[in-house]
Amino acid sequence: ALPWIGVAAVASLIFIEYAEILQHTAAALLWGMFGLTTVPVESAAGMAFGWKAIYLNASGKMLASLAAYTLGRLFLEDHVVSVLDDNEIFGLVEKSVGKKPYRTSMIVRLGPFPELIKNVGLSVLPPVGPGIFTLATFTQVFPFTLLWTWLGCDSVARMRDDTLPANKVLAAILLGVTIFGIFGAPAMIGLWVRDMKLEHDKAAE
User: Best label site of 16, 108, 127, 148, fewest CB within 10 Å?
Assistant: First the structure.
């Protein structure tokens, strides 16, 4: 019995040490799964855990996205496809995804939509398989996870030392992301829809 007591003791110590990390990852998973913005959660993790929060934030967001995608695939895909089978817009989107699934998935993921819409929306498009979805999601998630974690780390550093100089690189990146979110992302979606419509009209001639 003594060896098992030792194993249990070690396991308890490991759990206590990493309890906060596990709690944050689980919270990030649930938060992201319901499509809530993860910016404050990721920045707060950066303040609490430092740079290792990158792995916690990224794993939580990826698991949340994959969970939402899986649920949409299992319970919504067949219904949505059957209902929207004759819908012109859905047909255009499905055709666009079929030709360039990764490119179209990236456009959707970078678009100005709630996270839940991105995950579930891609899950009901048959050409977007699990591999394409995972690759596109990681490509979009990781840079922003890096940015928001950096913001948290930078913020807590300034709370500890208010004599630090302004972080011009971080400020420039945040400004660029804001401009892209307000103007770039909607314009990108608009151009994508326009191209689909032009291609459809050309094929109909």
Answer: 16
Q: What is the pLDDT of residues 20-55, one digit of tens each?
A: 666 666 766 676 767 778 888 889 888 888 898 898
| Residue located via tokens 């299992």 | 74
State the amino acid at position 186 in one-letter form: P
Q: b/e for 21-51, b at 16 or more Cβ within 10 A?
A: beebbeebbebbbebeebeebbbbbbbebee
Q: What pTM did the predictor assign? A: 0.82
What's the residue count for the chain?
205
**Phi, psi values for residue 14, rounded to 5°:** -65, -45
Helix ranges (DSSP H) in 76-184: 77-83, 88-99, 101-110, 115-123, 130-160, 168-179
Q: Which of 142, 125, 119 is nearest to 53 (CA)?
A: 142
Q: Are 121 and 108 in contact (CB under 8 A)?
A: yes
